[in-house]
Amino acid sequence: MIVTIAAVESHQLALIASRHSSPKLVEVNWLQMGDSWHRSKSIPKLKKHYGLVDQDFTFISQKSLSKSEPAETLLIEALEQLTAYFKGERQAFNLPLDISLGTDFQQRVWQELQKIPHGKTISYATLAQRVGNPKGYRAVANANGRNPFSIIIPCHRVIASDGKLGGYTGGLDKKEYLLALEGIKGDEVKR
After folding, report:
1. pTM across the whole model
2. What average pLDDT does the segment 182-187 reach?
3. Nearest-CA neighbor of 71 among 27, 23, 16, 5?
4. Catalytic residue status for 155
5. Can you point out the beta strands (E) in the chain?
6. What is the pLDDT of residues 39-60, one digit of tens each?
7. Of the listed 155, 158, 179, 189, which one is catalytic?
8. Distance (Å, rounded) from C-alpha 103 to C-alpha 94?
9. By residue range, what is the domain housing residue 82?
10. Last-in-domain residue among 57, 86, 115
């Protein structure tokens, strides 16, 4: 597995993207500067750099971000698309994603999440109906929590039926931030 870490300096966020030998991304995570990645024992404070870590999530090299490294082209594209998203210049992503590690149900949920337009929200109950399990809003919420492509597969756009934010693996403050970034203000959703 190759894990790439890169910083989006303007938002004090870091991208962690991983892939195996396939040409598709396996997982993408976002951290605020100074956070540790939940899958590792600890990662030192993330600096404004581009680096590679080994399977134990120990830094093995640091490089400047460059398009001249063909092995990392997909990860660089992910960084560029996500940077554009945070600048308000991109509303949708066109990255090849490998969602095959999810169950059939999770894959259906993740595919349906990608249909929610930028700047819009739907309820967990509506999402459950769309994936053919009308009473399965809790199962949908669990699938959201297992989404390996936060932001790219926009699970933050799903809220409770009463208009409350519901849950978010990254924390409700991050969910609220992402919704605000897409033009959905706090008075449109309740905490």
Report:
1. 0.69
2. 80
3. 23
4. yes
5. 2-8, 13-19, 27-32, 50-53, 59-63, 122-123, 158-159
6. 443 344 333 333 443 343 333 3
7. 155
8. 22
9. 2-86
10. 86
